[in-house]
C-alpha cells in the first residue's frame, strides 16, 4: 500500500518530515492537514505495519503516535522504536492519567499529550521536540569533545555510546543530552534546573518528572554494564555523575589539496 503524503502548503525546501500514526481517520487527517499548513511534510499511517512501511520508505524527523491502535499498540511501538534509536515520538492518548504519561516517557517517548488536544498545543510540542533534537545535533558537530568513562566511550559527533564490551547502546535525544550534560560537569551535584538548562530542556509543564524518568532510563542503560551506580541521586539537591571522565577533541574535517 502506498503511504499517503500531505505536502506542506508553503513547500519549503528541507521541511521536517512527520509521520502521524492513528487509526481514527478523521483525527489523523485533521492533524496531518494542520501540520502541513504549518510547513511540515506529513505522512500518515493507520497501524504498525503501515508505520513500518512508511519509515522504511523515507526518513522521518518525528512520529506522532496514538496509544490505542489495532494490533500492536502505541506503547509497544514506542518501546520498539526507542530501542533501535528511532525518531523522536510524541504520544497521544485518550487516557490522561499521570501514570500513563510516565509509562510513555519511560518507554522512550519525548512528549505525551492527552486527547482531545488543541492543534496549536500539538504544534507547540512538535516544534519543541524538533528544536531539542536540532539543539542536540548542534552540540555534536565536529570539533566537540569525545568522552570516556568507566570503559564507556561517547562519540559526541555521531551521538554514539559504546559499552565497555564495545556494544552500541541506543540513546534517545533526551538521554543523550542529559548524558552530555553530566559528562561536561562530572562529580558535581546538578539540580534539575541545571540539567534542563545544560541539556536544552524538557517541556516546562512536566519537566521535573520528565528529568527523573529520563535519568532513570539512562541510569539503567549504564548500570547494565558496570557494577556500581554511575548516576547518584542526592536527596533534595539533584544528581551527580560519580565517575572520572576523560575528554579528547573530536576530529575536525580539513580541506584536501
Short description:
The protein is an alpha/beta fold. The strands form three sheets. A six-stranded mixed beta sheet has the order 1-3-2-4-5-6, with helices on both faces. It has a five-stranded antiparallel beta sheet with strand order 10-9-8-7-13, with no helix packed on it. It is elongated, with a radius of gyration of 19 Å.
CATH overall fold name of the largest domain: Rossmann fold
The helix/strand series, from N terminus to C terminus, equals EEHEHEHEHEHEEEEHHHEEE
Can you count the helices? Answer: 8
Task: Please bin the fraction of helical residues.
Answer: 25-40%
Q: How many structural domains in the coordinates?
A: 2
Structural class by secondary-structure content: alpha/beta
Rounded average pLDDT? 80
Kindly provide the name of the CATH class of the largest domain.
Alpha Beta
Strand order of the largest sheet: 1-3-2-4-5-6
Given as residue ranges, the uncertain stretches (5+ residues, pLDDT < 50) are: 137-143, 201-207, 251-257
Q: Describe the main β-sheet briefly.
A: 6 strands, mixed
**Euclidean distance between termini CA atoms:** 49 Å
